[in-house]
Amino acid sequence: MKLVLRKNYSLSRELIKCSLLIFPFMKPNGMANINRIINNAYIVLMVISFSVVIMEVIVRHIKLNMYIYLLAFFMGWLVLRSFFAGGQTGSLLEIAMRFGGISVLIQLYSKQVSTLIRGFFINFEAIIYLNFICLLLYPHGMYVSSQTGNWNNWLLGYDNHWFIVYFGACFILFTYSYIFNCITRPFLLFCIIHISSFIVMSGAIIVGLLLIDFFWIFKIYKSPLFTYRTIWIVAIIVNAMFIFIGGSGIISFIIYSVLQKSSATLLSRQRIWEKTILSIKDNLLFGVGKPQTIDRIAFYNNRHASNAHNFLLEIVFEGGMVALLLFYFMVRFVGKRLKNHSDNPITGFLLLALMACLVTGSIDSFLEDRGYMFFALLAFASNIEMFSGIAMNSSNGQ
Fold first, then answer.
1. 44-76, pLDDT tens digit by residue?
2. Do the Cβ atoms of 253 and 280 come closer than 8 Å?
């Protein structure tokens, strides 16, 4: 009896520790515009969390996989390029710490996968439910209110382009349901995510969630054709389609009629893409770094354009072909890790979330605060073997 209690206490303490380490990396991406004191407190907590994670890796003599090093080189290059270009070095350092810290944490807990998934799930429950309350109080959301300069009516700072985080949460809730054979809590969270997306009528979130729903309901993610390579091919095609034929009648119909977005949405993105491509042509090898916000606004002549609104264009814009090559090596390494685990159901859940990110990433960037979950998904994929034992035990139990 004492041994059972001691074991349960140890597991509970480890779960609390894991959850607290994850928490600072999920800082609301609009908090800096709402309350600088709370925003700075988040950053301090993030530094502490990052330091604890690194110290744990050193003390436990954990050998980090190649994905972590490639991510460090990738973000390091963007920071360095921004520094010499007089860009947002501090902002990129914070983003790099968030991306790197949460990726290292995933490997740190790769031997305690149940604790890791529960830690993420608890954090998602907290922030998504709180965000839902904010949406009920202020349905127009931060995205609209920010255009009038009124940031004070948005409690948490999660804007309606929070799609990457929602898709990552879908992976966590699917995995949580599979590991713990629990339906109620994941299903409730899944419903709240969908309701939230329709309250703000964000096209990116709705399209991504519908993709996940369709591929999940009809079990397409179990098809041998649904692979890591396939979702990347589809993502590249969709990216090219939006950038080069964005003005076609089909695309216009989807955006104007189906998604009920205003014509200004597509037209402004087209102008942003055109100007981004012109800049890339002039700075193809090294990019221009992450410009200061005021310079970016002046460049696009659009006070709401903080990025290229396309994740591949943003990578090349900020870091040139050097950054794109480093990103390619990251993607390739992850693909090799996934290759031998295609039969694992959790691999299918992971590909669902990544597919949604990549397709909707054709109209937004991952190199922002909220992009941490995309790189966390890649970190999960680079440690995919952590789920092998769980999948095997589940199969035997059935």
1. 999 999 999 999 999 999 999 999 999 999 999
2. no
| Of residues 371, 349, 218, the one with CA closest to residue 290 | 371
Cα angle: 86, vertex 90, 91; to 5 degrees: 105
Q: What is the pTM of this model?
A: 0.90
Distance between CA atoms of residues 241 and 13, nearest Å: 49
| C-alpha closest to that of 286 among 78, 89, 75, 91 | 78
Residue 20, number of CB atoms within 10 A of its CB: 15
Distance of alpha carbon 280 from alpha carbon 174, whole angstroms: 39
What's the CA gap between 217 and 33, in Å, rounded?
Answer: 39
At 295, the amino acid letter reads D
Cα separation, 394 vs 323, whole angstroms = 40
Nearest to 354 by CA among 241, 228, 190: 228
66 closest CA partner among 388, 389, 387, 383 = 383
Q: In whole angstroms, what is the distance from residue 215 CA to residue 392 CA?
A: 23
* Share of residues in the chain with pLDDT > 90 (%): 57
Say yes or no to pLDDT of 220 above 90.
Answer: yes
Q: Six-digit token pair at 304? A: 């709401």
Reported as a pLDDT band with limits 50, 70 and 90, residue 88 is very high
361/383 Cα distance (integer angstroms):
23
Q: Are 32 and 46 in contact (CB under 8 A)?
A: no
Helix (H) or strand (E) holding 377: helix 372-382
| pLDDT bucket at 271, cuts 50 / 70 / 90 | confident
Q: How far apart are CA 321 and CA 77, in angstroms?
A: 11
Amino acid sitting at position 85: A
Question: 337-389, pLDDT tens digit by residue?
Answer: 998 888 889 999 999 999 999 998 988 889 988 899 999 999 999 999 999 87
- Every domain of the chain and the residues it spans: 2-397
